[in-house]
């Protein structure tokens, strides 16, 4: 169940990133987009791993997902 929720979260976040593209020359927005994309890719990589996640990995994924959401909120406010 946890992995399915992460998959949905990543899909929604990627769709929202497409909606909020950085303007040319906006360094902060471009770098924020890059960081957010890399975090989503990392989540996807672990999600696609066939083995069961350890408790420590689940906690790390939750932390990364939280960071991604906070970064998205900052991007959205810009």
Which helices and strands appear, and what pairs or packs with what?
Blueprint: H1 2-19, H2 27-48, H3 55-77
Helix pairs in contact: 1-2, 1-3, 2-3
Account of the 3D structure:
The chain is 81% helix and 0% strand. The chain is mainly alpha-helical and 78 residues long. The protein is elongated and about 40 Å long. The N and C termini lie far apart (34 Å).
Compact summary:
This protein has 78 residues and is mainly α.
Count of the separate structural domains: 1
**Global geometry:** elongated
Strand fraction: under 5%
Helix content: over 70%
Helical stretch tally? 3
Query: Roughly what is the average pLDDT, rounded to an integer?
Result: 75
Strand segment count:
0
- Specify the structural class: mainly alpha
Radius of gyration: 13 Å
Write a concise keyword list for the protein shown above.
78 residues, elongated
């Amino acid at each position: 169940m946890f992995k399915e929720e992460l998959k949905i979260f990543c899909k929604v976040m990627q769709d929202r990133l497409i909606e909020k593209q950085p303007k040319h020359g906006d360094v902060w927005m471009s770098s924020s987009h890059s960081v957010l994309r890399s975090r989503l890719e990392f989540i996807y990589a672990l999600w696609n791993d066939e083995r069961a996640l350890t408790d420590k990995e689940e906690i790390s994924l939750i932390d990364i997902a939280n960071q991604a959401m906070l970064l998205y909120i900052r991007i959205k406010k810009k």
